[in-house]
Amino acid sequence: MIKRALLSLTALSLLAVPAQARTWAEIKQSGTVRIATEGAFPPFNLLKGKQLTGFEVDLANQLAKQLGLKVQWVTQPFDNLLIGLNQDRYDFVIASHGINPERAKAVDFSNPHYCTGGAIVAKPGGPLTAAALKGKRVAVQVGTTYLENVRKVPGVGDVKTFPKDTDAQAALMAGRVDAWVGDKFTGIDLVKAQQGKVKQGDLLFNERIAMAVKKGNSSLLKELNAALAKAQQNGSYAKLSQQYFGQDVRCK
Ligand code: ARG
């Protein structure tokens, strides 16, 4: 019995994990593209009940449609996404990854699908500038560019990491930290939702956000870039961006 259970487990994992990244031709032939995201990073990728939604989810669904593909979504903790990509668990990742040299060593990035930055949010009277973060406790999501950049702030106090960005925000609201650093658009939504209980401060850094494919998967990358360019030309990207942000968030 146990042996059999073990065997079928092995068989399952073999089925679930192909040995190599699927090329564009293979994906096209299968008719379905496998896309991974976190599903906990509003307004970019989030779960509403069981429904995966957000700017990036809608955008990727649109790109897949343009490419004539069905989508199979996979959700993973943010910190696992690029690891799973390199294990060929899915074809690409769209989860607000900022392009940085460290990540670019591990994966290949598409052209950016939006531009943004990391900003400080604190309660009124709390630290709202980089200088004011001196000696202060700051909450950030683990594995993010926020962590990397907050650590660079001279004299910054305790930097606390959370598995989910929403947990880092909750720590600020509960007063367990003095500030939260996260995406500037997420910050705008947080300030609105909290109706004056928090304020947005300085932008600490800017970043270009892109989709990631397994290193070397140039055939898929080419199709994704072409689909993105088309969406940005035919107005569908602009419409989606207006819907989520009231502005066009493409990189200029
Ligand atoms: N833009 C930041 C980064 O590149 C945060 C991304 C977080 N994404 C998410 N799905 N939680 O690290």
Brief digest:
Its main location: other. The chain has helices spanning about 1-15, 25-30, 55-65, 80-85, 100-105, 145-150, 165-175, 185-195, 220-235, 235-245, and strands at about 30-35, 40, 45-50, 50-55, 70-75, 90-100, 105-120, 140, 160, 180-185, 200-215. The chain is globular, with a radius of gyration of 19 Å.
If you had to describe this structure to a student in words, what would you say it looks like?
This protein is an alpha/beta fold. The protein folds into two domains: 24-115 and 209-245, 3-Layer(aba) Sandwich (D-Maltodextrin-Binding Protein, domain 2); 116-207, D-Maltodextrin-Binding Protein, domain 2. The protein has helices at 2-16, 24-30, 55-66, 81-86, 101-106, 145-151, 165-173, 184-193, 218-233, 236-245, and strands spanning 32-37, 40-41, 45-48, 51-53, 70-75, 92-98, 107-122, 138-141, 159-162, 179-183, 199-214. The strands form two sheets. Strands 5-1-6-11-7-10-8-9 form an eight-stranded mixed sheet, sandwiched between helices. Strand 3 and strand 4 (51-53) form a beta hairpin. Helix 3 crosses helix 9 and helix 3 runs antiparallel to helix 10. The N and C termini lie far apart (60 Å). The site of arginine has 14 residues, from strand 6.
